[in-house]
Amino acid sequence: MASEPSTQSRVMFQAVDKTQEPPHRKLGKLTVKYDRKDLQRRLDIEEWIDGQLHLLFDCEEEEIPELEIDIDELLELTDEGQRSRLHELLQECGKPKEDFINGLLYRIKGLRKMSGPLKK
C-alpha cells in the first residue's frame, strides 16, 4: 500500500490572504475615538467662551463682531503666543479683556489637539 503514491491521503493547506476582507463584511468609515471627558471639557470651554464674549461685547450674539477663537490653533502656540493671538482677536473689544484671556488660558491647559495633519 505504501508503494502506491496515488492512493495515499494528502492534507493540503491554503494560505489565507489577510489583505482581503471576507465578502460578508461591509466597509465602514474610519473614525477617531476621543475620550468623552475631553469632548465634554472642550464643549464646556466653548460654551464659557460664548458667554464671556457676550459679556465683553455687551451685546446679543448677532451683534458680536466676526470672531473665531480656535482652541486647536491656540494649543499649537506657546503661552506668550496664545496671549498675543487672543489680544489680536479681541482688539475691537473696548472693555478690559485680561480676565477673559487669563481665564481661557487657564481652562485650555492640559487639553489635547482634536484635529491636525496626519503624520506619515
Automatic annotation (TrEMBL):
GO terms for cellular component: cytoplasm. GO terms for biological process: innate immune response. Keywords: Acetylation, Phosphoprotein, Protein phosphatase inhibitor. It comes from the Eukaryota. The keyword Lyase does not apply. GO terms for molecular function: protein serine/threonine phosphatase inhibitor activity. The keyword Phosphoprotein applies. Belongs to the PP1 inhibitor family. This is Protein phosphatase 1 regulatory subunit 14B isoform X2. It comes from Xyrichtys novacula. The lineage of its organism: Eukaryota, Metazoa, Chordata, Craniata, Vertebrata.
